[in-house]
Design brief:
Blueprint lengths: L14 E3 L8 H5 L5 E5 L6 E5 L7 E5 L2 E2 L21 E5 L13 E5 L9 E9 L3 E11 L3 E12 L4 E3 L6 E3 L5 E14 L2 E15 L12 E16 L3 E16 L5 E16 L3 E15 L9 E13 L4 E12 L3 E15 L3 E14 L3 H5 L11 E14 L2 E20 L5 E24 L2 E16 L19 E11 L2 E10 L17 E14 L2 E10 L18 E9 L1
Parallel strand pairs: 4-7
Antiparallel strand pairs: 1-6, 2-3, 4-5, 6-7, 8-9, 8-31, 9-10, 10-13, 11-12, 13-14, 14-15, 15-16, 16-17, 17-18, 18-19, 19-20, 20-21, 21-22, 22-23, 23-24, 24-25, 25-26, 26-27, 27-28, 28-29, 29-30, 30-31
Length: 584
C-alpha cells in the first residue's frame, strides 16, 4: 500500500510531496506547492502557513491521523518538522480535506501513516553550508516477516551570521542573534500477525533558537526553547471487505521564551475508523475522534481540559467507470461551545481517449475552526464566549494528460464568517472577538512536461497561483473594507527545471512572490516588496562498491537579491549548501 490515498482524507484529490532523503524543513518541502505560501520570520526561523489565502490556524495538520496544531495558538511551526524524520507528506486543498479536526478551512497537511513498507537499509547524512550551517543525521530501517521499524536521528545548527544591505544606503550589516540548534529522534515499531498490525511511533524534538531581530534592532537577544514529545499507538485489523483502525495519541509541548516561566500544553487523542465496501461500487468510511486539550503558563491558569468529539461518515459511490461521487457528513461537538454539522459533496468525471485523458471534479464543503486555548483563556483578555469560525467553499478542477504533458487548473471560492480578531479594549487590554468576514477566491495552475532524448531527460514544471483574500468587515475602519488580507500575495509563481544526464542531475528553480501588504488599510509605506529568487542544484550518486553516496551541491539566491518575507526581517543573499547521504 502506498500514499496515493491517505487514510485520513475524504477523497482521492491528494497531492503527494517527495521528501525522501532530504535535509530540509517541512516549509521548504511545501514552499513550491500550488495554493501554499509561508511566512518565515527570518532565515531558519518560525514558518507559518497560508493555505489558499487563509491564516496559519486555518490549515489542519495530521500526523498519523492525530491533529498536531498547537492547542495554544492553533497553528504549526513547519520549521520544526525536518523531513529527515518524515516518510510521507501529502496535502489536500479546501474544507473537504480531513475526516475530522478543527481548522481545515484552507486545507490539510498529512504527515506519515503506518502503511509504509520498510526494507533493511541504513543511511548517514552530512550537510555543510553558508553562515555556519551544519547537519548530521542517521537512519536505519529493519524488517522481517512479523516485525519492521525505523530509527532516525539528527542534529542541525546554524550561526545565521549573514550580511545584508541597509535600506537606502550603501552600507551592509551583519545579522546577529539569530542562531538555531535542533535535535530530533524518531522511533517507529510495527508487529504483524495474521490480518492484524500494531504500530507505534515516537517523535522527540528539542530546539534552542534565537529570535531573529528586525533590521532596526539587530542587538536584540530574545530566544525560544522548545521541547516536543509526540507519540501514537495504532491497532489495525483488515478483512476482505474492509478494515478497523484504532489509534491513541499523546502529545506534550513546552516552550520557554527568554527567562519567562514555561508554557506547557498536553493533548490526548483517541480515534477509530471503519472502512468497508458494499458490493463493487460503494465504499464507506466512518468513525469518531475524541480530543482532550489543556495548557498551563503564566497567562494560562486553572484551565479545564477542552473536550472535543467528532463523528463522521464518508460515502464514495463509483457509479460506473467514468463517474464517481463522494458524500460526507461530520458532526463536531466542543463541550460548552455547541456542535457543528458539516456536510460535503463531491463528484468526479473521467474521460479516457487513446492519447488524451481528462479528469474533472467539483466539490462543496462546510468548514470551521474552534477558538484556541489562548483565544478562550488567556489572562487578561481571553473570551470564553467565542463562537467557532465558519466557512463554506467550492472547488472546480480539471486535469489533462497528453503524452508527457500534464496540465491542471483549479478554481476555488471560500466564504467565511466569525473569524476571530484580537481587538483593543479599555485599560490597554486586547481581547478576541468574532468580528471578521472574508471572501476568498483563486486560481491554481500547474503545467508539467517531460522531454527525453538519448540519455537525457528534462523535467519542467510551472506552478501559478492567483488569489484574492478580501476583508468584508469595516475594521479597523471603513477604508479596510474590500482590501486584501495582510501577508497574502496576489500572485506567486514557481518554475522548476531538472535535467538528467546519465548519472548527473542539474536543477534550476525560479520563484516569484508579489507584493504583500502588512496592514488592512493597504498602506504602501508598510508593504513588503515583491521578490525573485533563482536556485541551482547539481547532484551525483558516487558508487564505491556497494556503498552509494548521493552528493548534492545547492546554490540559493544566485542573483544575490535582498528580500524580506516578513517586514523588516532580512533574508540572506547568495548562499551554498553541500549535502552527502551515504546508503550502507
Amino acid at each position: 500500500m502506498g500514499f496515493s490515498l491517505v487514510p485520513y482524507a475524504t477523497g482521492d484529490l491528494v497531492r503527494v510531496i517527495y521528501t525522501k532523503d532530504r535535509m530540509k524543513t517541512l516549509d521548504a518541502s511545501l514552499f513550491s506547492q500550488a495554493g501554499i505560501y509561508f511566512k518565515n520570520y527570518g532565515h531558519q526561523q518560525v514558518a507559518t502557513i497560508s493555505f489558499r489565502g487563509t491564516s496559519a490556524a486555518h490549515t489542519n495538520v495530521l500526523w498519523h491521523g492525530i491533529p498536531v496544531n498547537a492547542p495554544t495558538l492553533g497553528s504549526t511551526d513547519f520549521s520544526q518538522w525536518n523531513t529527515w524524520l518524515i516518510d510521507d507528506v501529502a496535502i489536500q486543498s479546501g474544507n473537504q480535506g480531513a475526516l475530522y479536526g478543527s481548522g481545515s478551512i484552507g486545507g490539510t497537511v498529512f504527515l506519515d501513516h503506518f502503511n509504509k513498507i520498510r526494507t533493511n537499509v541504513a543511511k548517514i547524512g552530512f550537510g555543510l553550508g553558508s553562515f555556519g550551517y551544519n547537519f548530521q543525521g542517521a537512519k536505519a530501517e529493519y524488517k522481517n516477516n512479523y516485525f519492521q521499524g525505523t530509527t532516525n536521528i539528527y542534529r542541525e545548527a546554524i550561526d545565521n551570521d549573514f550580511s545584508y544591505p541597509l535600506k537606502g544606503t550603501d552600507l551592509f550589516q551583519t545579522q546577529k542573534n539569530a542562531a538555531a540548534l535542533s535535535y530530533g529522534l524518531r522511533q517507529e515499531l510495527q508487529h504483524f500477525w495474521k490480518n492484524q498490525r500494531i504500530s507505534m511511533d515516537l517523535l522527540l524534538f528539542y530546539q534552542h533558537r534565537e529570535s531573529q531581530p528586525v533590521i532596526s534592532q539587530n542587538y536584540a537577544e530574545d530566544f525560544i526553547k522548545t521541547y516536543n514529545i509526540k507519540s501514537v499507538v495504532e491497532h489495525f485489523i483488515e478483512s476482505k471487505k474492509g478494515s478497523i483502525s484504532t489509534a491513541f495519541g499523546f502529545i506534550t509541548d513546552q516552550m520557554i521564551y527568554n527567562q519567562n516561566p514555561a508554557i506547557r500544553s498536553q493533548q490526548m487523542t483517541l480515534t477509530q475508523r471503519y472502512e468497508y465496501e458494499i458490493g463493487n461500487h460503494l465504499q464507506i468510511n466512518s468513525g469518531f475522534l475524541v480530543n482532550l486539550l489543556t495548557a498551563q503558563g503564566p497567562n494560562l491558569e486553572n484551565i479545564n481540559s477542552q473536550k472535543q468529539l467528532d463523528l463522521f461518515v464518508i460515502v464514495k459511490h463509483k457509479i460506473n467507470t467514468h463517474w464517481s461521487s463522494t458524500v460526507g457528513l461530520r458532526e463536531s461537538l466542543l463541550i460548552e461551545s455547541g456542535s457543528k454539522l458539516l456536510p460535503s459533496l463531491g463528484a468526479e468525471r473521467r474521460w479516457i481517449f487513446p492519447k488524451v485523458s481528462l479528469i474533472s471534479n467539483v466539490k462543496i464543503a462546510y468548514g470551521f475552526r474552534y477558538p484556541t486555548l489562548n483565544d478562550r483563556f488567556w489572562l487578561p483578555g481571553g473570551n470564553i464566549s467565542l463562537k467557532p469560525e465558519q466557512s463554506v467553499s467550492t472547488d472546480l478542477g480539471f486535469q489533462v494528460w497528453y503524452r508527457k504533458l500534464n496540465m491542471q487548473i483549479n478554481f476555488y471560492q471560500t466564504w467565511a464568517q466569525d473569524w476571530i480578531l484580537w481587538l483593543p479594549q479599555t485599560g490597554n487590554i486586547w481581547s478576541p472577538r468574532n468580528i471578521q468576514e472574508v471572501a476568498i477566491s483563486g486560481i491554481e495552475y500547474v503545467l508539467s512536461y517531460q522531454y527525453t532524448r538519448n540519455e537525457k531527460v528534462l523535467e519542467s514544471k510551472a506552478v501559478l497561483n492567483f488569489q484574492s483574500s478580501v476583508n468584508k468587515t469595516p475594521y479597523p475602519g471603513q477604508s479596510a473594507y474590500g482590501n486584501q488580507l495582510p501577508y497574502v500575495p496576489y500572485f506567486t509563481a514557481v518554475w522548476s527545471n531538472k535535467l538528467h544526464i546519465k548519472m548527473w542531475s542539474i536543477s534550476l528553480n525560479q520563484y516569484y512572490t508579489s507584493r504583500r501588504y502588512t496592514t488592512l488599510d493597504q498602506s504602501d509605506s508598510y508593504a513588503v516588496e515583491p521578490y525573485f529568487l533563482l536556485d541551482f542544484t547539481i547532484e551525483y550518486p558516487l558508487k564505491l562498491g556497494k556503498v552509494i553516496t548521493q552528493i548534492s551541491l545547492k546554490v540559493k539566491n544566485i542573483l544575490d537579491n535582498y528580500y524580506e518575507n516578513i517586514q523588516n526581517r532580512a533574508m540572506p543573499g547568495i548562499n551554498f549548501q553541500l549535502q552527502l547521504i551515504t546508503k550502507l
